[in-house]
Amino acid sequence: MYLNCFEEVKEITTNLVKIPSIVKTSGETKCAEKIYEYYKNLPYFKENQEYLLMEKTEKDEIERHNVIAMVRGTKGESNKTLLLMGHLDTVGIDDFGTIKEYAFDPIKLPELLRNMNLGEEVNRDIDSGEYMFGRGALDMKAGVAGHMYLIKYFSEHPEELNGNLIALAECDEEDNSHGAISALKILREWKERYNFEYIAAINADYSTPYHEKDENRYIYFGTIGKLLPSFYVTGKETHVGQAFGGLDPNLIVAEITRQMDLNPDLCDEAQGEITIPPVSLKQADFKDIYTVQTPLAAYSYYNFFVHRMSPTDVMEKVKEKAIEAFDNVIEYLNDSYKKFCEISGYTYTELPWRTRVYTWEEFYNELATIHGNKFIAYIHNFAKELNEKEPAMDLRKFSVRIVDEAWKWTVDKSPVIIIYYSSTFCARIEVTGEEEKEKLLIDSVKESINFVQEYSDKPIVTKMFYPYISDMSFMGMSDSVESLKTLKQNMPAWGSKYVHPIEEILDINVPVVNIGTFGKDGHKITERVHMRYTFENVSNITYNTIKKLLS
User: Fold this and answer.
1) Full residue range of the structural domain in which residue 51 is found
2) How far apart are CA 255 and CA 238, in angstroms?
3) CA separation for the pair 315, 547 (Å, rounded)
4) d(CA 325, CA 337)
């Protein structure tokens, strides 16, 4: 069956986009309240109030909420349960500049953008009337709106479901995924209370063309994984008038960036698909004021996507790059110093620097061996108290503060690189079709695509890894529990500010697919969602997939 849902999904999307739900603001809760109100007014949830929740996130630095709604099918006695998911938060709007007040206005924004000379393609899309503009329209309130429509539909037609359907609208996807992580508790509780068997999760996050002439629409099985390998570097301070008398940690960090940034050798591959190589997200030193002394320490971190590599694999690869970077800097410094001595008439002697690289696990264990429980207790208490005093501190800043504090305990003060992980772990999920649940999901989605393709004027294509970070990473796990020990042992914030919910995820552990919004320019002022495909085609692919999975 093909649902005539365009106008209703468009209306819901417009209402959601109008709510400024920027991550880490009260707008997240306001948007959750709007979604909750929509469900609450449906007759089904007036009769089944226990199937609708607006839940505050746990262990969060601010107050914000998820909305979880469930429809129980009446077609049969199956306990199979399918998850729909999508995030309600958006990124910020500083990029809108003088038109910030219209960032969430799908009606007025296109006219303002039309006058900004943003290029022929943007103007053409505005004039076409095929796109809805506005922060969050593409990423990804249109996806949430589609799920809201489907929950309403199935609440009116539970006889079409032999099983159960749960829709999760989660907050905080754009930062540290407190929403998805907190929702795991409810999903586990419902699993135990109602004896559910979770079979799959359908996300509705956004996709875009891969190039200017790409007319395909994309659906993705599985999802990319993301790690944030981070580097703390100490040098040897010196006065700028005696520059060769020290070792600048910024130089080492710069060489690490050269080794890491967009290096194709660090791409990962699985099922014929390749990840984007790592890219630098931060590099800085610790100097707060201007002085003519070189910095004591510096740090950097890099986005690292994976399809098949585990945290252990990534740590091994980036350690190799760190060693290579340190070696290169020492060689460069000696070459430079030798040339300087030649032109200055000085006697050259080899500089004293030696390559020295640790993982956080290695560094921590060395200090624990030297200082025993005194060090272990100190670092534990330092991290705990830091989180209590500054709970809103960014996880990456928090992590480097711990490494910097541990450095004070070292006996050998010679320059060093310490490698660690400092961000929420987004697990890769590979869907191969080898397991029954995976095969059922793949077959159901492809059959639904074949049906809906007749109603779409563009090709609908499947790929095997969603290429962006998403909350799907918290619905399953392809890495072994053993391989995740490397993550734990190399994450300074583990146990104080962050713990990856491995047990909770394994209790859900379903294959995932992204049947999501389509448009252009996510996270840009020209963000826009293609209405016909997203409001109608996507909703129908999702609808038919649900019917096939819960037949």
Assistant:
1) 6-55+63-224+426-475+510-549
2) 20
3) 43
4) 18
pLDDT at site 232:
98
Sheet holding 528-530, edge to edge: 131-133, 528-530, 519-520
Closest CA to 444 of 202, 186, 264: 202
What is the b/e burial string over 8-44, where b = at least 16 CB atoms within 10 angstroms of the residue's CB?
bbbebbbbbbbbbbbbbeebbbebbebbbebbeebeb
Mean pLDDT of the region 111-137: 96
3-state secondary structure 493-544: CECCCECCCHHHHHHHCCCEEECCCEEECCCCCCCEEEHHHHHHHHHHHHHH
57 burial (CB, 10 Å; 0-12 / 13-18 / 19+) is buried
H-run or E-run covering 80: strand 80-87
* C-beta neighbour count of 474 within 10 angstroms: 29
Residue 13: the pLDDT is 98
In a domain, 491, yes or no: no
Distance (Å, whole) CA 471 – CA 388: 26
pLDDT, residue 361, reads: 98
Quote the pLDDT of residue 61: 86
The total number of structural domains that make up the chain? 2
Q: What is the mean pLDDT of the chain?
A: 97
Torsion of CA 90, 91, 92, 97, to 10 degrees: -100
CA–CA distances in Å: residue 532 to residues 85, 149, 322: 21, 15, 49
Average pLDDT over residues 215-228: 98
CATH of the domain at 531: 3.40.630.10
Task: Using the 3D structure, point to which of 421, 439, 459 is the last residue of a domain.
Answer: 421
> 272 by DSSP, 3-state: which?
coil
Angle at 267 between CA 265 and CA 270, to 5 degrees: 130
Give the contacts of 150 (CB within 8 A, at least 6 positions apart). Answer: 84, 165, 167, 539, 542, 543, 546
Same domain, 11 and 98: yes
3 state DSSP class of 264:
helix
Looking at 375, 405, 421, the residue that finishes a domain is 421
